[in-house]
Amino acid sequence: MSTASLDIAAAQGTDVWPFAGVGLLVVALLVGAFLLGARIRRREPAPPRPEEQPRLPDSGPVGDVLENREPDEVPRSGDRLTPHRLKAHGNLGSRTSPTQARPRWNEGGSGSFGSGGPGGH
After folding, report:
1. Contacts within 8 Å (CB) and 24+ apart, 93-97
2. pLDDT over 90 (residue 30)
3. What is the reported pTM?
């Protein structure tokens, strides 16, 4: 090999160092992120043991309450209503409906869009 070819090879080899430096920087950042995550994980409380888990009450599981509710009426006034002027700070309340019969669809009605006809045509 002549010295001219060595000079060319050396000149071409210097282009690799920026990529190697960036690669080492990425590896260092990944290792640092892993170590930081491991340190944070060590500070977290341990998962609950089986004896610390919630238990069913002695009376058994709590049942669902099935009842029809009806909403409270929104006050009618000429003023603009803001959430803090409504009951329960903007959450509309509801009350138990006086009739607990579940509403049913009319026979032959779709219960949704359309005229309630047989459909399909």
Report:
1. 94/69, 94/70, 95/69, 95/70, 96/67, 96/68, 96/69, 96/70, 97/67, 97/68, 97/69, 97/70
2. yes
3. 0.35
